[in-house]
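User: I need a structural model of Ubiquinone biosynthesis O-methyltransferase, mitochondrial from Methylobacterium frigidaeris for a docking pre-check later this week. Nothing fancy, just the predicted structure tokens so I can convert them on my end. Input:
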Amino acid sequence: MPEVDADTLNALVGKMLGDLGGAFSVPTVRIGFRLGLFAALHQHGPSNTTELAERCGLAERYVREWALAQATNGYVTHDAVEDRFSLSAEQAMVFALKDSPVYLEGAFDLAAAMLDAQPKVEAAFRSGGGVAWGESAGCLFCAVGSFFRPGYVNSIVPAWLPALDGILPRLTAGARVADIGCGVGFSTLMMAEAFPNSTFTGYDFHPPSIAQANAHAAAHGLSGRVTFKAVAAKEIADTAFDLVTMFDCLHDMGDPRGCAAHVRELLKPDGTWMLVEPAAADRAGDNIGNPVSRLYYNASTMICVPTSLAQEVGEALGAQAGEARLTALVQEAGFRRVRRAATGPFNMVLQACP
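Assistant: Understood. Predicted structure tokens for Ubiquinone biosynthesis O-methyltransferase, mitochondrial:
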């Protein structure tokens, strides 16, 4: 065994204490979201725990311990003189404002779902098999939808679609759009609300997700212009689309190459495929030390790779495939032109044309 360096060890233990503090915060933060504690602090301003408990209909002793835990986390602000708790403007963006680009309720739900999935994924490590989407833990697909929604709200219509060559005029005039791997439908409905002259069809192989998507469409009054279908990507029979979109799902597919080739057949000759995938460097070693890649590699271990391995082919691209590998895959499927259209802190957007 190599000699232990005390400074290196202490630095590692310090890092682990920080990481474990974050892990221990997951259930208490989820309680704060679910019981309306963060929302009440944002709505009413600085409060003592008696006031906060009364507003939320909760037991004060629990609320006090919760509030002190969040203050220690740095997630709420504590005035030690007045013994009152509040949310700063920055804390509100993370914990109270649902359309903020950094609203993270879904991230904490996703962390909990990954813990629930551990026994099945652990068994898959031994067998080499997969864990099917929707079967790993509770409502994983709900958590994933919630996790991605804030980023989509702030990116799809304001930034990503405008970055595509020639697409906005077609959407404004009236285009046919397929949103493949639509999940619970957030991405599809955002586009439909922004472009009322276009028609949208969302496809996903997971029937419970499609059921939720249809419910969301009805709630938004979009059922007449938006259709959701439970069908695998390679089995989509509709054709002649002006635009095909895929948001954070190609790497989850068992046969991403077959899916890419099928997308080529779904498009009009002058159509466009917008492929949104997690941001990643092309060399795996260059992702190490990146906090975003840290999230993605862990999520990929627990969700993306098991999901792909549970399907036919089971290529298991993983959530950090990188632009070069994705571009090569798309070109092999018959797309002549592939370019990076936009880049964000969490995603890259590729435009592919036949």
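Before docking, keep this in mind: The chain is about 50% helix and 15% strand.
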